[in-house]
């Protein structure tokens, strides 16, 4: 217990020191680090005060022969906790998030971290939220085979290229394929039901790979996908620029992702547009659930109002704490919410799809226990996220719920940065 507590404290201290240097950092580079630390902050909120499950890292031993390696050439890996009882033949694959790298400099930096090398990955990680093994914390998936696939390529498991001079391997697509083959050999091929999920960059990867995942199994297997905080919008930032599109342009071009993006999109749109989920979701054939905060914290901070688009600091206080936003800023953010709702209109028409858009300032809600399933979890129409996802997955009920606009929801777990 003490180990868990002090781990949480250490993570929180790292995060607070990052926030202190927040403004200057953005002026110099825009890469995955801010998202990794935001995720660490979220994790620290989940870790304190409970007896958590630690799951060891498994490296995919035959991956190197397939060229399926992390940015630095090391083997990719995953954490697997076996299912039992009624869940023995059910599989949940969770794709780790953690931003992207969009140029040689940021990718070289990334390959010296857990986001680019298995040498730096934790040998054990906590399984919480949708990965928890406790029925009271994870009522529908607690006894499934649960897998966290580590993210070490920087292009949402979609790239396939290399840069010999910089000694960089962009092999996300191969990592995806090698990991799936390895898991199929360990029993996943016998699955009665399977769910592919992911948060943030992993949520985007879930959308990109959803139909591929479906294709691994017989049609008799129930297969669905859940994207958490993966609905990154092709939005105009507060300066009138395209911060996120510019980032994605670098990611797709550098890492050779265009050939691995869904052809149904690239046949009529440019590859950068096809890295945006808004242009993919309506054509995904497999049942897909989109869980997203209407005021996604990462998108506000890094896409809509990053310091690079806000040189005079007009958005600084609002960016760090929604309660400090002016009326015009809230109006701008309501426009972002409207954009999101417009993007999902066609997607929502399909009966098989699910939707949970809550009016919170947050990012990633499935892997945190307090937002996934707890006494004070966020709800829409009195239903917590875990129960909404379970109802949809098992066809107990159709779930397409959209919260009323901020500030009407008092169940949110807002992220406040200091």
Automatic annotation (TrEMBL):
What range does the record give for the signal peptide?
A: 1-21
Top-level lineage group? Eukaryota
The EC designation for this entry is 3.1.1.-
- Determine if Nucleus is one of this entry's keywords: no
Q: What class of enzyme is it?
A: hydrolase
One protein family per Pfam: PAE
Task: Tell me which GO cellular component terms the UniProt record holds.
Answer: plant-type cell wall
- Asked if the record carries the keyword Hydrolase, the reply is yes
User: What are the recorded Gene Ontology BP terms?
Assistant: cell wall organization
* Single GO molecular function: pectin acetylesterase activity
- Where does the UniProt annotation locate this protein? Secreted, Cell wall
Output the InterPro entries linked to this UniProt entry: PAE/NOTUM
Keyword list (alphabetical) reads:
Cell wall, Cell wall biogenesis/degradation, Hydrolase, Secreted, Signal
Q: Which family does it belong to?
A: Belongs to the pectinacetylesterase family.
The protein's role, per its UniProt record: Hydrolyzes acetyl esters in homogalacturonan regions of pectin. In type I primary cell wall, galacturonic acid residues of pectin can be acetylated at the O-2 and O-3 positions. Decreasing the degree of acetylation of pectin gels in vitro alters their physical properties.
Q: What is this protein called?
A: Pectin acetylesterase
Gene giving rise to this polypeptide: Vigan.04G378300
């Amino acid at each position: 217990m003490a180990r868990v507590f002090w781990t949480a404290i250490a993570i929180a201290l790292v995060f607070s020191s990052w926030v202190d240097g927040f403004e200057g950092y953005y002026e110099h580079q825009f890469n995955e680090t801010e998202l990794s630390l935001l995720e660490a902050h979220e994790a620290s909120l989940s870790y304190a005060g409970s007896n958590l499950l630690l799951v060891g890292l498994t490296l995919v031993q035959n991956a190197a022969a397939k060229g399926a390696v992390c940015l630095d050439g090391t083997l990719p890996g995953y954490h697997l906790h076996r299912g039992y009882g009624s869940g023995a033949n059910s599989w949940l694959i969770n794709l780790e998030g953690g931003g992207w790298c969009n140029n040689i400099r940021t990718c070289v930096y990334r390959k010296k971290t857990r986001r680019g090398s298995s040498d730096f990955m934790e040998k054990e990680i906590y399984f919480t939220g949708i990965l928890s093994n406790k029925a009271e914390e994870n009522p529908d998936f607690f006894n499934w085979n649960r897998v966290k696939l580590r993210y070490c390529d920087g292009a949402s498991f979609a790239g396939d290229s290399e840069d010999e001079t910089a000694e960089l391997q962009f092999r996300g697509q191969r990592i995806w394929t090698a990991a799936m083959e390895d898991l199929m050999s360990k029993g996943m091929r016998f699955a009665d039901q399977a769910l592919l999920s992911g948060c943030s960059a992993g949520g985007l990867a879930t959308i990109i790979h959803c139909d591929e995942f479906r294709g691994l199994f017989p049609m008799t297997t129930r297969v669905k996908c859940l994207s958490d905080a993966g609905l990154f919008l092709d939005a105009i930032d507060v300066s009138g620029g395209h911060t996120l599109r510019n980032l994605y342009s670098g990611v797709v071009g550098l890492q050779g992702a265009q050939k691995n993006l869904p052809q149904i999109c690239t046949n009529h749109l440019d590859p950068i547009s096809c890295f945006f989920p808004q242009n993919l979701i309506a054509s995904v054939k497999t049942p897909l659930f989109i869980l997203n905060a209407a005021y996604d914290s990462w998108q506000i901070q890094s896409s809509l109002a990053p310091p690079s688009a806000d040189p005079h600091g007009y958005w600084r206080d609002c960016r760090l704490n929604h309660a400090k936003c002016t009326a015009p800023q809230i109006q701008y953010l309501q426009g972002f919410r409207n954009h999101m709702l417009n993007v999902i209109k066609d997607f929502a028409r399909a009966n098989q799809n699910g939707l949970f858009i809550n009016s919170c300032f947050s990012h990633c809600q499935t892997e945190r226990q307090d937002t996934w399933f707890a006494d004070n979890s966020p709800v829409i129409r009195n239903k917590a996220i875990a129960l909404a996802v379970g109802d949809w997955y098992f066809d107990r009920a159709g779930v397409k719920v959209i919260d009323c606009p901020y500030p009407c929801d008092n169940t949110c777990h807002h992220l406040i940065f200091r």
